[in-house]
Amino acid sequence: MNVMEPSVGAARQPAPLSTTTSSAPKHAAEAKEATVGPPDGARDTAAVVTLSETAQASLVTQTATQTAGKKDFATVAKDTRAAIDAKYAELAANGKPMDYMHATQESWDTVYGGLDRRALFAIASNSDGSFSKDEQDTAQSIMSQQQGQAMMAADPTGNDLAARFRAGVAFLEGVSDEEKGSANWAVQRAANQFGYEQSMRSSGREPDDLDSENPLVAMIKGAMDRLKDKSPESVATGGYVKDLKDMPLFRDGVPAVAAGPGPSPQIRALDIRA
Questions:
Q1: Which burial class, exposed, middle or buried, applies to 260 when counting CB atoms under 10 A from its CB (0-12, 13-18, 19+)?
Q2: What pTM does this model have?
Q3: Which candidate, 240, 247, 198, 177, places its Cα nearest to that of 219?
Q4: What Å distances lie between residue 70 and 67, 74, 115, 127, 177, CA to CA?
Q5: 180-209 per-position pLDDT tens digit
């Protein structure tokens, strides 16, 4: 079957399962993009936002390292709300108020360029209910861009999909615990492992064991394996996964998740709609 893969455009490499919308600027390098149509009842699309190289360099894309003084997630959300509001005020003071329908590169970089991955997830997940749909979509798009860049770095020539998907797995393992508690992360983690294994076997190689100890990931991956000969739409969705029950993969209901090591998985992810 065809495994969903990130596009190989020069500017933005979205993560698998992402889609586009007209609410943000489109660039020529974004035109070529693999997408999968969203299931009935699922969130339609996600914004497409590309940060400049300078802004990208300021992003902290890995947040796995745990420190005793790390902020709690509620504080992260509160501080992030204050930070982007301050950036909106800065743009307005310069006579360039933020307009999500017609935002410039300067606007994207100013508002989002200084946020780390955990802050972006606080926005994308709308963790405290204070973020708009435009803000949620933008943060999710940047997060997808980060993952896509990590994957493309492992396969710069586009000739080794297995290396690309394996890098996707490694990237996802390095994000925050809060992000790992979302259904979207579990689907991405399972899909990247599935893509890695399929790519390895299609080239006559035996894949390494990348199984996750997260029981929700294991459940989704097992479901993907059973449907591997069907269409991509049977395996995944085209947008941010809010609720597993919206996925074609679980059209007949979400099976119970067996107990396992690690934190208790959440079947319903944080709703990122305003």
A1: middle
A2: 0.72
A3: 247
A4: 5, 12, 15, 17, 12
A5: 999 899 999 999 999 999 999 999 999 999
